[in-house]
TrEMBL record, chain A:
TM spans (from-to): none
Protein location: Cell membrane
UniProt feature coiled coil, ranges: none
Record family assignment: Belongs to the ABC transporter superfamily.
Protein name per its UniProtKB record: ABC transporter ATP-binding protein
Lineage: Bacteria, Bacillati, Bacillota, Bacilli, Bacillales
Organism from which the protein derives: Geobacillus thermocatenulatus
From TrEMBL, chain B:
Species in which this protein is naturally found: Geobacillus thermocatenulatus
Membrane spanning stretches: 101-121, 133-159, 189-208, 244-269, 289-312
UniProt xrefs under InterPro entries: BPD_transp_1_N, MetI-like, MetI-like_sf
Protein name per its UniProtKB record: Peptide ABC transporter permease
Gene Ontology CC annotation, any one: plasma membrane
Lineage: Bacteria, Bacillati, Bacillota, Bacilli, Bacillales
Amino acid sequence: MSKQPLLEIERLRVSFQIEGAYYAAVDDVSLVIEENEVVALVGESGCGKSALALSIMGLHPPEKTKVEGRLLFKGTNLLSLSVSELNRIRGKEIGMIFQDPLTALNPLMTVGRQIEESMNYHLRLPAEEKKKRTIRLLERVGIPEPEKVYHRYPHELSGGMRQRVVIAIAIACEPSLLIADEPTTALDVTIQAQIMELLKELQRQMKTSIILITHDLGVVAEMADRVAVMYAGEIVELADVDTIFHRPLHPYTRSLLQSIPSAQVKKDRLHVIQGIVPPLHKLPRRGCRFQPRISWIGAEQHELEPQLREVEPGHWVRCTCYRHFHFPDDQMTREVDYGAS
Amino acid sequence: MLKFILRRILIMIPQLFLLSVLIFLLAKAMPGDALTGQLAANPKMDPQTLEEMREKLGLNDPVHIQYIRWVKNMLQGDLGLSYTHQQPVTDLLAGRVGNTVLLSAAILVLTYLIAIPLGIVSGRWTDTWADKLIVGYSYIGYATPLFIFALIMLFVFGFHLGWFPTGGSVDIQVEEGTLAYYLSKLNHLMLPALSGALINTVGIIQYLRSEIIDTKVKDFVKTARAKGVPERQIYWRHILRNSFLPIAAFLGYEITGLIGGSVFLESIYSYPGLGQLFLQSIMQRDYSVVTALVMISGVATLVGTLLSDIILSAVDPRIRIE
């Protein structure tokens, strides 16, 4: 533990303004990202994983967002930096891959110029050098005919190709941390696999740390070293990837894993987690936040102030309810009929 | 590109045909004819003579014959004779078209000179006092009819303060071609051009403002920020360029709209242009002038649409016309 971690997220709280009051979408999250490590942030839509990622990059509109806590990147607190100081880190030290390649690129700029743009501010290269580097980058992210694509506009490329361009932008200055915010959600299944393969390959070559935000557990199993499961703005379970998949403890993690359709075990019905994530301004701020969705577990089994505790080395779980958790009896489940034959 | 323009011009032919039929029929449907106006001026005119004149001018021929004659003449550059001015319509227009073009160009330039900075300030710094002032101005501008605003401007700056002349396009005493002549033209132009621009600009301010507000939350702006691009460049390269697209496309239509918009301005400021002539000719039932002017603004509309398409394809790489 003598070496400084790449990124230390300390008691991060990200709050959004809703009708005049602030509500935390990310609530008291602490997480350490080591060098050359892939950490997956998993959770359903609205659990705060994207809000967390955007706050690392300082991309929340400041007038409507409050970010508290500390984000120590190589020892510097990103939250204490001015925008121009942050601009020396964004794009150079931290790269970001966005979710939707159809909207993440400027429609009026050629692919080449969009990739070069970050080099303009971080690496002072002569124009020729810059172009060569850009074409190499395009090649590296698996784009055929990079010299031609260099002059193309985004609308002339397919979704998968555009996502490769988005990746090329993110890695243009060889950052030490990549944040991938659901990098495959907007793509076709076949393209998804290719993009994940590419990310894996790039991670191996560049030894970049990746924060991988996803709700696709298949992707997690394939890429992540460690997994943080988030629910309603909090980390509910944190462990290495094997532990999460083989010995999950928190009821939410277990329910998530239970709801993956499996090819081996033919089930007539899919498991669904009852209820929905409550909207931000209706979120219970006390007690176990998952309690309403596992109503068959008695209230006395939950902690009043649930803490994230290390139950075995490197394996952290919030609340004590996991000790008493079991899946509900048949008559209590409201399950989706999945075309039973 | 060239092929596209040629094709568009070809499509314009049937459009122009329909337009000409419509204009001709509407002109015919107007109460009275060219001679009714003269009758009003000279009530003692003998009905017998009037009837002879009608016969001579072909006003008693069947409608389709009259239409064909009108089109044939028009294609040869003969727009007919103005009955009230006793002068070929083409000559009448030639003397005024320069003034209208000048006024329109001045309005257009001023409109964009006002709209672009105000729209940017308002869209970038939303909900600041500056934005609220600009939005306030644009609402008032929307609600104010041009002819009322122009009258107020005329009264305050022309009549009351006496800073600008209240009519005409140039001082009659100065000699043509001298510096004094051009300065006088400019002096006469200022008030109508400013009045037009101050009202005309509010639509573009609002449009630009909402475009910027829409664009600044787009994903590609986040991508640019994540690259570490400084805020000023974020605006210039990413937000503003994208926000200007629809404004640029507007330009073509804007040019057309100004010809119609000049009707009020030219009349109020007694500015001898096409708009003033248009209103006068309607009053005097000088229908050969009216039809010629409507036809011209019809052609201008079609050309404006084409212009808009060409401008848009020049600035937006997603639109490539083949």
